[in-house]
Write the structure tokens for this entry.
Amino acid sequence: MLLSVNAQNPEPRKIERATEILRRGGVIAYPTDTVFALGCDIHDKRAIERVYRMKRMADSQLLSFVCPDLSDIAHYAVVPDYAYRIMRRLLPGPYTFILQATREVPKVLRMKRKTVGIRIPDHPVAIELARALGGPVASTSASIDGEILVDPREIEERFGDLEMVLDADGVGVTPSTIIDLSGEAPVVVRYGAGAVDFLE
């Protein structure tokens, strides 16, 4: 199901329809400030497994937690002071931050690695989705074998098991920059949409 949403002022009833799907264990695609994402409830093991199958992801690949604001992050990640200062400066924005995971992160998402990827996209639809759900949306880019999909109709077609695709303006075509903040100093893991010159 393709559902158009206002990018700047997402209609609450449409956001609620999407969150109801997530609560029931569904998987949706939705817009972020970088690329479209596939998302599900972080507590639904079957939905998480579906995302991995749909994208043909390796078990070692992590899903990110899309959160509505900084205050939500401390539940799921250990945030050192230096990391908080960096995140406060850059979020919301096109970054994924890797941090040490807390016990609040479901075991299926901690796997062998004790870290979690945190995102707060600069896109109202993504923010309102996480806010309405009442917790992070487990997410990964809408891509197959490295090919980023930018057309909502193609996403719906290529990921046939999706319950909904939220279509809105303001979506980029470049994945997020990934910065590892789990150690004593920031390390850029992947260069993407966000600038990192402030680290150099």
